[in-house]
Amino acid sequence: MKKGTRLFLLFISLILIVSAVFQIKTNFPDLRMPLINRYVGNVKESANGSRYKTYFYELAPIERQAYNLILDEIYDMPEKILVPNLSEKQLDEVFKSLLNDNPDLIFLGRKCRLNSELWNTYISFDYIMSKEEYKKASADMSLKRDLIIASLSDLTDEFKTELEIHDYIIANCVYKLEDEVYSYSSAYGALVDGKAACEGYSKAAKYVFDKVGIESILVSGKASGDGRDDGDHMWNIVKINGDYYHLDLTWDDPVSSDSTSMSIHTYFNLTDEAIGINHSDFSYSPGCTATEENYSIKHGLRFENYSDKDDSKLRSLLVNEYNSGEKNIQISFVNKSSYDNAFKSLITNKKIYNVLGNVKSNRGNSVARSITGYYADDSFYTLTFIFR
User: Fold this and answer.
1) What is the pLDDT of residues 264-323, one digit of tens each?
2) Which residues contact 8 (CB under 8 A, 6 or more apart)?
3) Which residues have a Cβ under 8 Å from the Cβ of 52 and sit 6 or more positions away?
4) What average pLDDT score do residues 165-185 get?
5) Under 8 Å between Cβ of 181 and 193
6) Stated pTM of the model
7) Residue 191: which residues within 8 A CB-CB, separation 6 or more?
8) More confident residue, 113 or 144
9) What sign results for the dihedral spanned by CA atoms 283, 284, 290, 292?
10) How far apart are CA 202 and CA 186, in angstroms?
11) End-to-end Cα distance, the chain
């Protein structure tokens, strides 16, 4: 075949291919060319969703691309979203990251699926509410968050802001776990319904922390002991004054069956080592080693040792905390020996009443007569005195 003839036939073939592609796009206008599966450099996060997307940065570039494509469309609840060609394992990582980073995705169920159509890959989701239902739920959740923020005393103080958000959620939420009720595992359940499991507590905290500019990470793992059910658990890691700490709102809410909750601070800003006493298999940790923002240390409520000579120090601490408005005052000890000495003296021998004696508060009440009970945690060496 002559060279000119070959070129002519090649030209005709190209025309036929272009014509076929045009015909396909005309007859199937929704058909799109496949996404490239290789990316050079970093994939920047989407402007949509949460302010802090920790798990996004743990993904591979192709997974980040899928994450962004989903987040850019998901709020419109489309039937399907075009994504790069992912494996089932990659899809699982992307989906978990989306849910952990973005607590406002309360309309998503627990399942998603990959579907292939010609050369394209799509992901589809189970939506557990309609657009109209989500619009109302989102507005209710946002309103509750804004009310919490309006009640905060000093947004420039990260520790105080974290503490007040922690105490507010615990005071207005009771523990509730039913697998078939999705709201109990959502920020909506904790903030609006006032009923949630550990996932709901954690997501509610992140939802509010995001708004006030406190970086927060949802952490899943295992937890056991203290009379609680062993098994899967979720809590937060927060960044306070430049350092990361573990924060477990659920386990700081020891009363779960009543309509009102008592907030303690045993799990307020712990190191990896400290929370590792009964929490394990962390899904993520940036390395929590600082102790400065631990609740007991920050408030000067930690004892190196305990003996009779420490009675006056304890009296001063309890009265000052009580007069500042604290109803549940927790003291901690650095080791088992000092904890056991304090427990025997203050609780077993009931010396706590002698320590406080007839000290009057600035509200004219006897501090000793205001004590209604105590909460002891021999794993973390803490005693919490409960006042009226």
Assistant:
1) 899 999 999 999 999 999 999 999 999 999 999 999 999 998 888 888 898 888 888 888
2) none
3) 101, 210, 215, 216, 217
4) 85
5) no
6) 0.85
7) 141, 144, 145, 148, 169, 173, 204, 207, 208
8) 144
9) negative
10) 9
11) 102
Residue 356: which H helix or E strand, with range?
Answer: helix 351-356
Contact 366, 358 (CB under 8 A): yes
Q: What tokens does 261 get?
A: 């909750």
State the Cα–Cα distance between residues 263 and 162, nearest whole angstrom: 13
Cα-Cα-Cα-Cα torsion 275, 281, 285, 287, nearest 10 degrees, comes to: 60
Q: Between 361 and 106, whose confidence is greater?
A: 106
Return the sign of the alpha-carbon dihedral for residues 333, 338, 341, 345: negative
DSSP string, 272-337: HHHHTTTEE--S--S-----TT-HHHHTT-EES--SGGGHHHHHHHHHHHHHTT-SEEEEEESSHH
Alpha-carbon span 237 to 220, nearest angstrom: 10
Here the tokens at position 285 are: 């940790």
Q: Are the C-beta atoms of 233 and 221 separated by less than 8 Å? A: yes
Average pLDDT value for residue range 133-151 = 97
pLDDT at residue 144 in the model: 97
